[in-house]
Amino acid sequence: MSDPNPAIPAPEAPGDEAPLLDIRDLRIEATVHPPGERPRTQQIVKGVSARLRKGRVLGLIGESGAGKSTIGLAALAYGRGGVRISGGQVLLNGRDILRLPARGLRRVRGKEVTYVAQSAAAAFNPAIRLMDQIVESALEHGVASRAEAEARAVSLFEQLGLPDPANFGRRYPHQVSGGQLQRAMTAMALCPEPDLVVFDEPTTALDVTTQIDVLAAIKRAIRATGVGAIYITHDLAVVAQVADDIMVLRHGETVEYGPTAQIIERPRQEYTRALVSVRAIEHPENPPEGAPLLSVRGVSAAYPGVPVDVLSDVSVDLHPGRTLAVVGESGSGKSTLARAIVGLLPPREGEVLFDGRPLPPRLKQRSREDLRQLQMIYQMADTAMNPRQTVRTIIGRPLEFYFGLRGAERDKRVNELLDEIEMGRGFADRYPAELSGGQKQRVCIARALAAKPRLIICDEVTSALDPLVADGILKLLLDLQRIEDVAYLFITHDLATVRAIADSIAVMHRGKVVRYGTKTQVLTPPFDDYTDLLLSSAPEMKLGWLEEVLAHRRMESAGH
Amino acid sequence: MIRIPLSALLGLTVTALFFAGAALAPWIAPYPMTQIVGDVWEPASAEHLLGTDSIGRDLLSRMIYGGRTTIWIATLATMLSFLTGSVLGLTAAVAGGWVDQALSRLVDLVMSIPTLIFALVVLSVLPTTMTTLVLVMGLLDSTRVYRLARAVAVDITVMDFVEAARLRGEGRGWIVFREILPNALSPLVAEMGLRFIFMVLFLSTLSFLGLGVQPPNADWGGIVKENKEGIVYGISAALTPAIAIAALAISVNLVADWILTRTTSLKGGRGE
User: Fold this and answer.
1) How far apart are CA A501 and CA A521, in angstroms?
2) Structural domains of chain B, count
3) Which residues of chain B neighbour A384 with C-beta distances below 8 Å?
4) Which of A214, A260, A313, A360 is deepest in the core (most CB within 10 A)?
5) Is residue B271 included in any domain, yes or no?
């Protein structure tokens, strides 16, 4: 039983007790249809091997497209949309499940191996009560009677820290929060007492303060039930908290595979080192100078027809060429603040001053010059660009619109902007669908810059990107700030991003600014309870961080 | 350079033949439209390729001229219906509020009356000219297009890129025609193929009922009407226009399907 890839030895020597899961030289391919070429077969996973003993957790980490989810699903002998498992073996409890016929597979899936999806909201049937969905596979496989399965589910709810465990299962999926639903899905996976659970980015869609609770709950449940687990994520700091071993993947190949401590503390490969040191951007804080460029004064706002204020009495200042980071979990009102500033949601009270003079509250009342000076970059670059326009039109339109540039003059400026965002001129005639995620966000940045604004509102611009790509975007934004002297209002929930770029910080919670000041002031103790919770919830690249935080934090997260 | 799939090529060829026939009718029709050239319901012969009709006119010539009328009216009515329907639909979606409410309720009102009955009432009052036919058919049908265009556009107006255009200060014209229309085009084009055929059928129905194209001129529906008695005697003259309508319907939709797949591509139709 020699390892097929001698360069990357499996962390366990042969001759151990028989592993629960033994993936040997797994190869997966798909047919791709590149533009202008004949369809061809592409290898998605190129000979990956891994072993997992009962009760252990294997972390799969890599950026999107690395093949981590594909490998995770192969542990269920499943290939998603058009993917073919073309070679290798997946031994589960000693037999190769890739060779099993459909009937045999049905006996394995949901009984020996189960799956927790990234978006629990999309994975639950909204029309069926949680309990019925959670016990379904246990009943289907005859593992337990209904009463036994429900009793087990209730005890799992308790282990996972769900509210009112006895009655939780009676609710429908829409009646519980995202974090609770993710835990319910973990309960669903654990209910039939499987030997292996595949967790596919279970906390990625959650807020930091919620993520930490779900993470702790999952870790507890894995330990208590002694199940083996594959934990897939793109966040190395997260996987470091739960995994015993980590496999770093890139382009469908194993980059590095070893015990968690070794990967985090002594990475051997260049790529792993980059992942470990990601978000270590050094940005010295610049003190505010002169009069504020943007001044939000006592703004309260509510959505039409909703009696509750989404923003209440928000006041912040932003100085020219500086970055103000607005931090908070989802629902804290940070995006609403952006909408109030740009004029999409006129405030109920208070005013927004730009360069000393009040901005008209409604978008329609603002002059073209006001609009030009205040640009916005969105979280989802995909939907922020018209898919039917080429990059040239997307970047060129603000040039035409604000400066009346046409033809060659406009194209020249578009090329300059493409250079500024570190993309070649060859991109001018591409459509957004022909760009990668990071490139799309760069084009959106260029579109904002084309207007020569004095303030850019960045709404979670890096949250949808892989860590290394996000790093590149942040560095680009910082460089552009130096060159163009533009101010950023940076909305984010990610504290590492805040540390990397902010000059001043406003912490928002339930529509109020709970802490506001320069970066040093805000990040220096003593903290208020919410800031403490938020700061401590951001995963750190450190072993045992999770336990440390849970032992020390003062305020419980809302448990969403 | 562009590879056309076989089905689209077939559709294009047949559609082109029909349109060419319509355009060149006076030159390719062997006899004038209304001239009586033979006996009643003569079978097909070298002289009369499709035989003659109920009063002895050459059926092939009448088919060619009738096709000219049918295709001409249906095309104009479809264009009118798409122009009004999609412009109003997109505007309603972008403007929202009372503009949307007023237009949508008006459309609901018109749609609640069966189209055929509405058309029959209007046409029995107005003089039956080609202009009235086109206007009545086009405007009645534009309600369907309006509904589709509005439904498609409502989904697009909430996208970030439309908000980005609004924040830039773009006017309604740019937002409707440059941001939304290109993204709404593929369902609209697919619908256009279907709608054109509905127009052909609608016009044929009207003519069959005597309220469409008036004798001695005829469209395909009128030819069916003139020759329907012949079916009892085993004379197939009435089936010829039916076959023509079917052939046109299929070929136009083959083309529409092809356009749909090409315009759905987000890579500017390059490759694939």
Assistant:
1) 15
2) 1
3) 160-161, 164
4) A214
5) no
